[in-house]
Amino acid sequence: MSTQPQAWSNCLDVVLKVAERCNLACPYCYYFYQENELHKTTPALMAEDTARDVAAFLRRGVQELGIQHLYIGLHGGEPLLQPKKRLDALCRTLRKELSDVTTVHIGMQTNGTRLDQEWVSILAEHQVSAGVSLDGPPHIHNASRPDHKGKGSYDATVRGLRLLQEGVRAGTNRATGILCVANPNHSGEEVVKHFVEDLGIDNFNILLPREGYDSEVWKPQSKWVNYFTEIIKYWQTTPKKVGKLVTIQLLSEIMGAMVAEPRAERLDFRRSTRHHIITISGDGKLSLDDNIIALDKALYDANTNVRNTTLAQFIGGPLFQQLVRAVDSTPEKCASCDWFRTCRSGELFNRYQKGSGFNQPSVFCETLDTIHTAIAAIVSRRENGVERLTQVLSRKPEIWARDFLKPVTLGPTELPLPEANSIRLPVVE
Ligand code: SF4
Known about the structure:
Low-confidence stretches: 1-7, 413-429
CATH architecture: Alpha-Beta Barrel
Structural class: alpha/beta
Number of domains: 1
Number of strands: 11
CATH superfamily: Aldolase class I
Oligomer: single chain
Strand content: 5-15%
Mean pLDDT: 89
Bound molecules: iron/sulfur cluster
Helix content: 40-55%
Largest sheet: 9 strands, mixed
Radius of gyration: 21 Å
């Protein structure tokens, strides 16, 4: 917590596909069941010589571009399909090759089913902040996250989560975050109630599907509106029910921004830099944020890899720059929307349509409008709430994706950010 202005350094996220297979077969998985076909030709596990090539590529890149913080997310598939010794060696290689030229932060997104005490110790040793994917109580999670034989994974996931939580409580492991994929065919209240009251989780995020106009998953919007309305109603009551505030990142970030200008600036920063991400596949191929390449084969070039391209060339190249322009563009409807500052047209993958690109509002516009309206109503009931809201929403964002790699200084805040369940933590120097 700081009351001083804070310099946010230039930083980059790297999604490192250390295992491009999964022991689960979640039907909504964007990596295996959408447009991306990378996993069909890549090796199941990243080899040790590829890991060394990746480290050399990143070393040169951060030096060339002056990147001060590198957020490496160990990803898959399921990253814990890697043998323990190899993942341990990979973390060692990354730290050894990069720590003298940048600050290395390592995170992981796992389904949690393979976590045991030995894994928890390895994650502790390398200070890996792990996020666990959990979709709700057993009947919901088991239906959406089965293994390849159709057997649900809830028990194994929660067993793994508990081990990690013990490590966090003991002070050996870094904070664990929960990611839940929204599913409006179930009750939103039931999902968050299970996290908060049954599992004692007070910080998690709910993700919208990684799909745009070429999908039907967002129709009808009324289902999604009801789902999130239930969640917001429950979220409002949590201080009374469990004696503390519960952070649901999707909602807490918006509320924080509506309450205080410094928080709004942080949200501007996060919205602007959200696709400052590169993905490196198991054989070293280079691509955009893996959420984006799942939308369309046109967003991916199979010939680019860490051996024939530098980081500076990739970031300056047409695919990455197309994304930068898309983040900074404002669809016509959004330009006159009251919520533009805190919504920023929604997630980029929810704006995509083959052939026309990203130049339309989110497919979840109606749901986002409902969420922002409900949170603004909560804020306006607070002391000076209407004034604060007006001040924040009347200002235009001043931080843009095109300013990537320029250090940004943000104003002071007395409030902590709801970031603990994000692989990328804000950098304060
Ligand atoms: S609520 Fe809809 S119109 Fe408003 S900024 Fe978000 S996507 Fe655009």
